[in-house]
User: What shape does this take?
Amino acid sequence: MSAWSLEKLLPDYIKRFEAYIPSRPDAELMKMYGCSRLYRLNNNENPLGPPRAAQEVLRRFPPPRASVYPSGDVYYLRHRLAEKFGKHPDQFLVGNGANEVISFVIKAFCEQGDNIITADKTFAVYEWVAEFSGFIAKLVPLKDNGFDEEGMLDRIDERTKIAFVCNPNNPTGTYWNRDKLRRFLDRIDGRLVVVVDEAYCEFVESEDFPDCMNLIEEYPNLVLFRTFSKMYALAGLRIGYLAGGREIVDAIRRTCIVYSVNVLAQEAAVAAVGDEDHLVRTRKLVREGKAFLKDELTRLKLPFITGEGNYLMIKIPMSDTLAYRKLMTHGIMVRTMTGFRFPNHIRITVSHLDVMEAFVEALGKTLG
Amino acid sequence: MQTHHTQEVTLSVQAELRFLPVATWFVEKSAIAFGMEEPEALSLMLATEELFAYLCRVNASGHLLMRCRSGGYYVEQEFVFHADYFNMKAFNITTVPDLDEQGGIDETGLLIASRMVDRFQLFEEDGGLRLVLTKEKAYPESAEIVIPLAMPLKEFVVKVPGPEELKFFVHLVNHHYAPQVVPLSFNFPGKVADMAACGACCAAIAVDVAGRIGGGIVWRWEGSKLVEFYGPYLFNQSRESGMAEALVDRCLSATARTKAIGLINRYPTAELPIEYFEPLGSLTSRMEDGSELAFSAYFRHLEEDLGSTVWAHSLIENFLVDQYRRLFFAREIRQVRDEGESGSPFSVLSAEFDRSAGRVTLHPIWWGKDSRETLSAYVDTLRNEGLAGIFFEMDVGTSWQCRFAPALLQTGFEPRLVIPHAGTGDIVVFQHTTGKSVP
Assistant: This one.
C-alpha cells in the first residue's frame, strides 16, 4: 500500500477544472447515432475548404520532408504576414492554433492573484486557460448580446492584467465598431493588455469594423488574434497568430513554445494569405446561406441571433442538448449553447444551400 | 461548486490491538477539531474502535491508512486496507448476528460500527479495500416561525442568498410546499446554511428591492457528474412573472461550465418550466392522505452526448434499449451473464432514508449469491418501518451491479427510469411496486 495521493499533489484550481472532451471521429459518431452521412455544423468551419494555392501545397508536399523539424519561429509566414499588412515580421507570433497564443499571453502577463476580464457568453477558452492556470476569470454579462464596455471597465481592478474582447463575438455575431473599440482603449489608457480576438474578422462585411492591424501601432497594449482555421479552412492543421507592437510581442515571445507549428501548416498558411478570390467566394456562400436560414427560421417562427461571422444562433423550444442528439440521428451535428450560457439555443455553421436545406428539414422533424 | 475537503488529517498505522487507542484518539480528536460536537465525535470514534478491532482480528499486522476529513456539515473517516477476509455482510441493516459463534461476535462489532454512522461506502481499489464512514453533525429541526403573507413581486433580481436569507428561504419552502418536493436537508435550516457555506449545495433566490423573497431554487452535486436540483419554489408569484425561468437559468449558468454533465429534478414543483428538460420517467410517492402520486423526473443534459458503453443483464436489456431510443442516447449495450464463475456468498446494500417523504433508496455495495434474500429482507424491514417508497439505484457503468437485476425483478422491483451519466455510467432507478416482497 502506498501513501500516494493525487488529491494532495493537484492544485485546487486544477481539481475544480474538468478536461474538455472533444467529439469522437465522424465514423464513430455515425455508427453510434445510426446515420449514413454527417454534416458538421458545429465548429464554424469553411465548407469550401482551403484556398486553392494552399490545397496545392498540401498535394505537393514531399513525404520525406516530414522527418525534418519545421521552422521554429515560423519564419516565412511571419515575413508573408508582415509583407501583407505592412509590418515588421517580429510583430507576429504564430501558434498551434489561436488557442495556443491565448496561453502565451496569459502566461506572459499573469502571476498569482491576477485576473483576466471578458464576457460571460463568449468563446470559452480565455476563461478556461485563465482558470486552469490558477487565475481568476472575471466574466461580465453581455449587454444586448454584445460586450459591455461599461461593465468591463467597472470590474477592472489593479490585478486585472488582460481584457479579452471577441470581435465579432462568438456566438452572437455582435462587434465593437471603430469608435467603440478606440474609446475603450482610450479609457483603459495602457493600464492592462487588451486582446482583440478577430477569429472571424475576414467574414465581416460591415464598413465600420475596426482595423486592429493599424491600431496596434497606436496602442502599445493592444494585441490581436487571428486564425487560419475559419476563413482559410486550415483547422485540421492548427495554425493561428497574434500581432502587436514590437515591445509587447517581444515580451510575449518569452512564453512562446517554438517548433509547435508543423511544416504543412506553415507552408499552407503562407500560400493562403491574401487569396482574395477565396474570401469573396466564402463571403458569398455565407451571405446566401444566412439569407436562406433567416427566411426559413422566420417561417418556422424560431427566434435567432445573428450578426457577423459564418454562424447563426437559434432559440429552440426545447433543451439544446436533446435537440443535438435528435439532430445527430438525422446526420446533422450542431453546437449546443448551454456551455456558452445560452440554454435552449443551438449554433449553426453556415454552409452550402443543400446542407442548410437538410438542416432545416431535420430541425423541423426534431421540433416535431 | 463542489464540496472541497479543505481539512484532512492522515494516520498510517499497523492493524494491531496495541494501536487501538491511537486510532480512536486520532478519530475523536480530529472530528472535534473539525467542529463536531462530542456525541457525534464519540459515535465516529466508537465505529472506528469496532472496525479497527475487527481488522486486527482478521488482518493481523496488516498496514492501515486512516484519513479523517471535514466536509463542513459532516466528518468522513476513511480506512484503506488489505484484508484476507472482510465480512461486509454485517453492514446490511437487516443483519442479525449469531452470538453463539466467533464469526457472529466479530460481525457484531461491524454491525455496531455501521449503525454508529449515517452513511458508509465500500470500494475495491488497487487490490485493497477502502471503507468510508460518514457522520453528520447534529442540527436542530426546523422551528415554527411566523411566515409573512407572500405577495407577488413587481420586479425581482436573482441572487445568491446570504446565510440568514437562505435559512429564511428554507422556512418559506417548508411552509408552502409538501415534503415530497423538498430536499431532506430542509428539515434542518442550519444544516442547509452549512452545506451552502462549504459548497455542498448552492441556492439562488429571487428578491425585490425591499429584500422580499419571491422564490428560489436549490441544487447539489450528486456524485461527480450529476447535479440534482429542487424547485423552482415560487411563493404566490404568477407564471407570467418569468421567475421560474430566471431561477432555472441561474442554476444552468452556474453548472454549465463545471464538471457536471447532467441536471436532474426527481420531484419537480408545478412551476418547473418543462420545456427546458426531458422527461425521464416517473417515480411514485405516497402523499400524507395515503394516496399515491406519480412525479415525473426531468433531466437536462449539459453537454453534447459522446455516447458510451453500458452493461446490462438480459432481463433489463429491452427496458434500456427502449429508454435510450426514446431519449436519443447513443449507447452500446454489453450483456452481463452468469457463466458459473464463483462469487461472494453475500450481498451488501446501503440505505439512504428520507423519512419525512416516506422514501428510502438502496445502493449496491457488494454483489453476492444471496442477493435475492438480501433484497427481500430489506423490503420486509423497510415496509415494516412504514416506508412506502423503496428505490434501488443500479449503475450500469459498473458491470457487477447489473447482477442484481434478477433478484430485483423477483422481489417486486421494476425499472422506472434511466438517469444518464449519474454514476460511473448511467443509473437505472428501480422502484418497489408491490405491497410485499416475494419470499
Remarks:
- The domain at 1-138 of chain B is CATH 3.30.565.10 (Heat Shock Protein 90).
